[in-house]
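hey so u asked for the seq, here:
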Amino acid sequence: MLDRLCDAVYDRLKNGMFGKIFTSYPDVDCGFCVRAADSAFRSNVLSPARRKLASKIENSLFLELYTKIVRYLLSVRMRVYGVGIISFLLYTAVVSGIGYLRSRDSGSADILSVAIPALLCLATLPLLFSEISLSEALSGSLVGRLLLSLTGRGPEKLDMSRRLGRSNIAFIIGLLFGLLTYFVSPIYIVGAAAALVIAAIVMNSPAFGAIMLFFFMPLLPTLLLVGIVMLSAFSLILKVIRGKRFFRFEALDIAVFMFLLMTGIGGMFGASPVSLKSGAVAVMFIVAYYVVVVSLDTREWLGKAVGAFVLSATMISFYGMIQYMTHKVAGANGWVDQKMFSYIEGRAVATLENPNMLAVYLILAFPVAFTFMLTFVRGLRGRAVSLISVAAIGVCLIFTWSRGSWLGLIAAAFLFIMIWGRRSIYVFICGILSIPFLPYIIPQSIWLRFTSIGNTADSSTAFRVNILKSIADMLPDRILCGLGIGEESWYVIYPKIALSGVQWAPHSHNLYLQIWIQTGFLSLIIFLAFVVLLFTSNFNFYRMLSDAESSVMSHISAAPLKESCLRCEPRQMPSDRTDDEKEIRKTKTAMRLQAASPLCGVLAVLVMGFTDYVWYNYRVFLMFWLTCALSSAYVRCGRRELEFHTPKNEAGCETGFDVDIPIESKVKWKGRS
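ran it, structure tokens below
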């Protein structure tokens, strides 16, 4: 009986009004996007210009010089690198020793500035006995192969026939940079060298830049993240111009571009001059959406990005847990009403400086980490490690004591379970039956905190209500344009109209009202249209998966870290038909969950947005768009795999088109550098 009920509910959702609305993405895309964008990008003016520009880039001196330098550095012997590094460290230690002796009398001497270079010299000594090239060292070590896989270049693509380099020149270069530490901190010199190496890799592989964004978002300052986005976007533009990347422009991308445009206008015409800088940062972080969607074009690249995301979130979660348990957290007086929640001594912030911003980051990561455990890893050991990661993120989320994030995660869990499978109604029934027992199962401190949502006796809730009353008269005047981006523009107007006691609130504590105030009501409508398109594109993909025939699915592998998931021959299936169908169902479920997990994180943030301004931190703002892009990229990747093996598109037209003129085979989107 329950099985029939499950089938009836899902059939109604699929074929009823909900299904017609939320799987109508191809109609929107074919009707609007193709007509508008085809005339712009397939014109007789732009196509020849693109080809001419591509020819100039291919024959440019800069590209030739870049290629020769990279090939030479990969062919240099490790012994030569060892001589240069030891020379640099020795002279750095000498310069630091001189500084130590001169400052010892004043009491500001630091012996570590001498000891660290000396110890690093000892650690570098083994390089002096290695005659292999850097290419051979990378291909012959586990760490090296991992780095090569992240850059998209396997060992077979490296030239290992040459061993070059002169030790005397390396010694002189190291000496000069060592002496330079007298004027410049060695940390800046090493950082500049690392930045040059990373820039060279990103110029060759913009997907590496996208993976860096997922990993370093909570670890690096905002300006460095802006630099990574700019470099990755520049590299990607060159790839598209040269015909090494295909960009299928869709209705969803147009909505993102329109919101980006409104954000840029809000930055340029803000109430404060500082709004221009804030708007520029916001625009660059929205550009990261395109970087991810275009560069992560295979399931292999998407798997690497998810792995980087989960690893970084796990590290941040452990850091936040250690903060909380050692009482090095945000003070309770600043973040918690002590009259109602005297048992809360503080809230974890980790590297994001605000417990609510940490909570936003964690609810974006939690569904992705959970799906990583279900579909990415194999074996008991791998599942155990992934379970620890999921548990760490969940525990750290509790330590933020952010009620809005808990509410958002519940909504995300509801959507995730609905997408998971038809038997999810069993979970809901169990959940409903367990409600009377929750106060006895959940720790009392967590239960009291959660059930206080909406209680105006809480100073935090009363504070938000007064802010909403203050800005109510401001909203009708902000239809086409808003105050501008950033706190500075907010403070130009808001304190003049605010109620007593909330004059210095930094924002409206509501995502949607803050978008309206900063960039206008039209911008809010565009953002909501983007959200609808994001969900319709996902649900349309789920319907395509549901309707896909076994002959199509037999060509597709959902394994995320394989070299290619697009096959010209069907994979070997079990001889038993029951096992064959089971394998196909597992593949469909994995593909569906991999696309759904970032979407559920986005839903959690959107729900939390009713209770807080979830974009208050620029780095969290970046992570929101990265997660949206991750979901969209998974949908596009899966759709390409299905369409490649389907004789004819059932929608009657393409779901997008290639901006870049197809001078290469359509199959060559997989694995290009």
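The two ends are 53 Å apart (CA to CA). Residues 561-571, 649-673 have pLDDT under 50 and may be disordered.
lmk if thats what u needed
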